[in-house]
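In response to reviewer comment 3 from the previous cycle, which asked for concrete evidence that the modeling workflow produces usable outputs, we include below a single protein chain processed end to end. The sequence was submitted unchanged, and the resulting structure tokens are shown without manual editing.
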Amino acid sequence: QVSLVESGGGLVQPGGSLTLSCVASGGIFSITIMRWYRQAPGKQRELVGSITGDGVTDYVDSVKGRFTISRDNAKRTVYLQMNNLNLEDTGVYYCQDAVRGFWGQGTQVTVSS
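The workflow returned the following structure tokens.
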């Protein structure tokens, strides 16, 4: 059984930054692909980006150049560094173990002036 716990969400002004964390327990974390998703109010959950076990990343076009995914396998943690946030980045952010399909409970990010 894999458990994922996100943290780091909050209220930030447009143009601000925020870093989310996702701590995994169970499973072999170092080899699993991890993904970040987000779900805006009234919209479907969408993929933000992913990172392989050895650190190769990929991002949706809307966040390229602003968001960075990284991981620390020793800490069993994946991060989502978000810079230059805008109103459209508001939503609940989830991490996912892409191999086993487990999800975290999500953390709310609100971008507002």
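The two ends are 40 Å apart (CA to CA). We consider this sufficient to address the reviewer's concern, and the full set will be provided in the supplementary archive.
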